[in-house]
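Annual report, structural modelling task.

Input specification for the PXG complex:
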Amino acid sequence: MNEQKPKKIFLDGAFVDEADAKVSVFDHGLLYGDGVFEGIRAYEGRVFRLEEHLERLFDSAKAIRLSIPLSRAELRSAVLECCRRNSLWDGYIRLVVTRGKGDLGLNPASCPQPTVFIIASAIQLYPASVYERGLRLHTAAVRRVSPSALDPAIKSLNYLNNILAKMEAAATGADEALLLNEAGYVAECSGDNIFAVKGGRVVTPPISAGALPGITRREIFRLAQSEGIEVAEREMTRYDLFVADEVFLTGTAAEIVPVTEIDGRTIGTGRPGCWTQKLLLRFRSLTRSTGTLIYESGEPTAMRAAQQQ
Ligand code: PXG
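The model returned the following structure:
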């Protein structure tokens, strides 16, 4: 936990001190991982792609037949108010909806009221050195959950598959895990989507291969298009990654991060590639110039100064 002043948490319609922000041990989000969430970023007083995150949250909830007890407009207001109550300028917003408190036993029918909470906090970022040296990936033996079991397009509270893969990678000294689907094709990493660049073309696995429909991933399609770069979604094997000129990962927390080694193979020159760097620069200028304003007047100067201390 960080040492900053106690946070105000949005919990079931009210703002409470973090010490009082408690969820029942009978909450099915905890007991069974029955729920959905979003990880959202705020940059310089604006929430990046808030509408897309809300849309994905409602889609995830619909897919698991979870009825969110707030409208989209109410949830949007709650997110922005939570940022204001915590004087958030740059940071991370975690929006969680669980099945709620119920009896022991899987049956969601015993949970009358979903639990909704929002945390607006500081974000733990990769150190700057990672963007200079690039990440090392290790292919996990654990495969991405099949869409026939639990569709990976649902951003659910079930991350055990990803956590086990991440632990495997860490045990080999790698930074991140590469996950393949059951057919052996590349799906994504434990908390990021994956892209390869070869001959000036950008390629990424389709959602059907087991990738989360990432908000940052979608941004790459837009940015590449505006740069006149071709982007294709197609089935990829590890071979496609090994022989790529560049590989990079995308995610809300990581933004766009270069990969320079996979399973002992050096990728490209072994240094972050020029397309990766170009896209990262474009992405960073986008995140600082778009988004839903948290503070009506942009931002009071005094608060901005305080945040930057
Ligand atoms: N794949 C998986 C499995 C993810 O969990 C992404 C791809 C990238 O999607 P976005 O929409 O972020 O571009 C994710 C994102 C967290 C946290 O707190 C997790 C994510 C994002 C932000 C925070 O662990 N996962």
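The mean pLDDT is 94.
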